[in-house]
Amino acid sequence: MNVDPKELSKFSDLAHRWWDPTSEFKPLHEINPLRLDWIDSHARLRGRDVLDVGCGGGLLAESMALRGATVKGIDLAQKPLMVAELHRQESGVGGLSYEEISAEALAVREPARYDRVTCMEMLEHVPDPASIVAACAALAAPGAHLFFSTISRTPKAYVFAILGAEYILKLLPRGTHDYEKFVTPAELAGFCRAAGLQVADIIGMQYNLLSKQYRLGGPTDVNYLLHAVKP
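The chain above was modelled as a monomer; its predicted structure follows.
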């Protein structure tokens, strides 16, 4: 199975803090409105069937459901999924469900099923990101829009995403990221093309040390997002 047990354990141990905006997941809470608006601006969510691959505690999945989409979130980490389901019940959000299953397994069961597929902040945590991209492509219906976000494997990304974010600013717990697992934009675009997808847009995400705020735009040499379309 395309999973790193250490990664599952790491996020499972923190699962109970997923929806706390002051916790280790603070960066996810801060970037979620940016990525949500970016997705919705490229491919409207309302009325669409959406799959969120690597949904974790459900932050993005629930936000997309609130935009009027019917959303299914999948992950292989049981505790974050339990947190996601509990939050769904507490918030009363409709059109939202979760399942513990891999993207590859779901692609066999539900090929060409979804109008929109998202896979955010997940590719840098798996042994074989190309396999995830291929599964996402298989799950997407013809004409579907797919969205990925990850971290580029560059010296700047090592300085900012690991040394800066984990050790100096302490925005993330130490050991959150493994530099060797970072994926460059060229590599991700290649995975998409190999899976039969057309790359429509790639955009960077920047963190301002002075304002302590994130914004979309600028270089793609640290955090970036990619939009692809299935012909």
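The CA atoms of residues 166 and 173 lie 6 Å apart.
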